[in-house]
Amino acid sequence: xxxxxxxxxxxxxxxxxxxxxxxxxxxxxxxxxxxxxxxxxxxxxxxxxxxxxxxxxxxxxxxxxxxxxxxxxxxxxxxxxxxxxxxxxxxxxxxxxxxxxxxxxxxxxxxxxxxxxxxxxxxxxxxxxxxxxxxxxxxxxxxxxxxxxxxxxxxxxxxxxxxxxxxxxxxxxxxxxxxxxxxxxxxxxxxxxxxxxxxxxxxxxxxxxxxxxxxxxxxxxxxxxxxxxxxxxxxxxxxxxxxxxxxxxxxxxxxxxxxxxxxxxxxxxxxxxxxxxxxxxxxxxxxxxxxxx
Length: 293
Hints:
Blueprint: H1 20-31, H2 37-44, H3 48-59, H4 84-93, H5 95-108, H6 114-126, H7 131-143, H8 149-161, H9 167-191, H10 200-212, H11 217-231, H12 236-248, H13 254-292
Helix pairs in contact: 1-3, 2-3, 3-8, 4-5, 5-7, 6-8, 7-8, 9-10, 9-11, 10-12, 11-12
């Protein structure tokens, strides 16, 4: 028995610029109207941040929303279009908006049409995003290889919907993303992975280390050294067990690991000596008793 589900027609123009994960997320939420991020991520083989990011893509186009939440806006239905006169007046009278549009036009390398200006005015006027905020989001999208204005609009609106609604929050969000990306690059170089994509499980480990736990690359390198020494290869599953153990103990740097190791080594050495001495004494006493008999 086949199941039939419907994807909104407004999604069709967006399919070309959507990533595989974004397409998988769209299909998933089209089938399941009631879901949790954790359950959906597990079923799709994604990390929770990956699924949330994919949903943010469609939420920016008003095709998705958090499970159980009512829709607040309907941009894809074009209920909030600005008429041509309003758009023209904004460009003519608002210097900041006009200059922002010019800067974005140069960033994306395209001449905007009336509908492009309408989308930008929506972000600037209706959402309240500043020119600095929008230009920074645009630069981030372009640096990720996403040069579509439509993608930029969805991303900016998705970030606003998810609470990244000020420039200071955006700076922290992008800094976290950039820091995690740098650490992922270092990890791949360290492990000799080259351009190989992570498996779904590996992606979950890496996202947890660098985005959730904010582990330093130095600590991950220490786990790498421990892993290779133990099993002879850089296996992320093995590294993850080590890192989770260290994190649960509050160890944040290789120095923390080394310090505790020295303490434990000292305890083991002392304990081993005591145990051997006690065993030797017990054997001696037993032998003496036998002789006395």
